[in-house]
UniProtKB/TrEMBL annotation:
Subcellular location: Cell envelope
Pfam families referenced in this protein's UniProt entry, alphabetically: Molybdop_Fe4S4, Molybdopterin
Entry superkingdom: Bacteria
UniProt keyword DNA repair present: no
Organism: Enhydrobacter aerosaccus
Protein name, entry field: Formate dehydrogenase major subunit
Entry's Gene Ontology cellular component terms: cell envelope
Keyword set includes Ribonucleoprotein: no
Family: Belongs to the prokaryotic molybdopterin-containing oxidoreductase family.
Keywords assigned by UniProt, alphabetized: 4Fe-4S, Iron, Iron-sulfur, Metal-binding, Molybdenum, Oxidoreductase
Listed GO MF terms: 4 iron, 4 sulfur cluster binding; electron transfer activity; molybdenum ion binding; oxidoreductase activity
Biological process according to GO: anaerobic respiration
Amino acid sequence: MGITRRQFMRVSAAGLAASTVGALGFGDAGDALAAGVRPFKLERATETRNACPYCAVSCGVLIYSLGDRSKNARSEVIHVEGDPDHPVNRGTLCPRGAAVLDFVRSPNRLKYPMHRKAGSDKFERVSWDFAMDRIARLMKDDRDKNFVAKNRDGVTVNRWVSTGFFGTSSQSNEAGYLTYKLARATGILGLENQARI
Ligand code: SF4
C-alpha cells in the first residue's frame, strides 16, 4: 500500500499518542485521544519542490502554499522547509535557507524585469518581452561590432570578449548545459556561474 509523507506524519502522531496512553493502562482512552489529535498542519497546503535561491549549495526546499485560484483566493506561501528526499541537504537547511519565507514575502524582492533608460535616474518595470528583445538587441549589436574571427597571426579564434554571461546555481543540470552551449556558441569567453565552488 502506498502512503504519502503527510499520511505517514498523521498516522504516526495519532499512533504514538494512542500507544503511549494504552501502555499506561488506560485502555480505550488511547483510541479517544487518537481521534482528537489535530490533523497535520500542512495537510491542506500545496507542496512544491524547489531549490534555495541563496547560495551555490542549492539545497532542496519544500514550499507549502494555501489558496485556490478557482475560488478567487490568492495563493500564499505559508511555510518552507528542507526537502528530506533531496540528495544535497537531506532535509536540512542553514539559518539563511531556513528563513527563506522572509525572502519570499520581502517588499524589496525583485519580481519583474526592471529597466533604466539612458539618462534616467530610476528603474521602471517592463514586460518580459521587452526585456528579452532589449537584451537580444544589445547582444547582437555588440557581437556584430566586436566579434573576433581571427587573431593578428591569422589563427581562427571566434571569440567575443566584450560581453559576459552569468549563470545561476538554482537551475537544473540541463539548463546549465544549455547556458554553457549558448554562451560558447556565440563566442563568449567570460562565462561565470554562482555555483563555482
Ligand atoms: S540552505 Fe543555506 S547552504 Fe543551502 S542553498 Fe540555502 S543558503 Fe545555501
